[in-house]
Specification:
The chain has 227 residues and is α/β, with parallel strands linked by helices. It folds into two domains: 142 residues, Rossmann fold (3-Layer(aba) Sandwich); 74 residues, Trehalose-6-phosphate phosphatase related protein, domain 2 (Alpha-Beta Plaits, 2-Layer Sandwich), CATH 3.30.70.1020. The protein is built from eight helices and eleven strands. The strands form three sheets. It has a four-stranded mixed β-sheet with strand order 1-2-3-4, with helices on both faces. Strands 5-6-8-7 form a four-stranded antiparallel β-sheet, covered by helices on one side. Strand 7 and strand 8 form a beta hairpin. It is globular, with a radius of gyration of 18 Å. The chain starts with a helix and ends with a helix.
């Protein structure tokens, strides 16, 4: 994250409760953002920390109460699947397998287009040995996750309830995202008839979001809003 974007997000957090919801592991997201005043939901919302602003002053017991990990029982299985996927895709130039704690991401953005189907087939073959894991897709990425009813939309609902921000009469949630997996969060806000999803995309797309921005630079401008 650029210093300018970090400053913009920090500005928003001064006035409104702010969370980062990502498919990457929570630790990676925090390392990228580096703002303790935010809530973080990594692994597509399967690893949520409600706040880390004063974590250094908390006891270990206090820290535990702030974590929510609905897929914790799947962690050994995810590690095994990660190792299998690394081995299976080793021969595909450009393929990158990323361990995001409660999910595994197989990136094929740098793979020759003629090998995309081969990557998908290799992932399918590995998953045959893991019936409790499922496959979802994102932007040039195949996501392997536990077969639980949880996604970024469920994470948004959990955050709103846990932070006591689920009163539609007094709270207007705004969710900004640029990935296919963000559609679950857009859909939740639309179905609740409370809040607005904002899609970031240079091209028109079918979406559950109410509004759109064309680039991260426009997100930065929005985040520099002062009430």
């Amino acid at each position: 994250m650029s210093p300018e974007m970090r400053a913009a997000v920090k500005n928003v957090a001064k006035f409104f409760p702010t969370a980062i919801v990502s498919g990457r592991s929570r630790d990676k997201v925090f390392e990228f953002v580096q703002l303790k005043e935010l809530c973080y939901a990594g692994s597509h919302g399967m690893d949520i920390m409600l706040s880390s602003a004063d974590s250094e002053s908390k006891t270990e017991d206090d820290k535990e109460t702030k974590l929510f990990q609905p897929a914790s029982e799947f962690l050994p299985m995810i590690i095994e699947a990660y190792d299998s996927l690394v081995e299976a895709t080793r021969s595909i130039t450009g393929a990158n397998v990323e361990n995001n704690k409660f999910c595994v991401s197989v990136h094929y953005r740098n793979v020759d287009k003629q090998d995309w189907n081969s990557v998908a087939q290799l992932v399918d073959d590995v998953l045959k040995s893991f019936p409790h894991l499922k496959l979802t897709t994102g932007r040039k990425v195949l996501e392997v996750r536990p077969v639980i009813d949880w996604d970024k939309g469920k994470a948004v609902e959990f955050l709103l309830q846990s932070l006591r921000l689920d009163d539609p009469e007094s709270v207007l949630p705004i969710y900004i995202g640029d990935d296919r997996t963000d559609e679950d969060a857009f859909k939740v806000l639309r179905e609740r008839n409370c809040g607005y999803g904002i899609l970031v995309s240079q091209l028109p797309k079918q979406t559950q979001a109410f509004y759109s921005l064309r680039a991260p630079s426009e997100v930065k401008t929005l985040n520099n809003f002062h009430p």
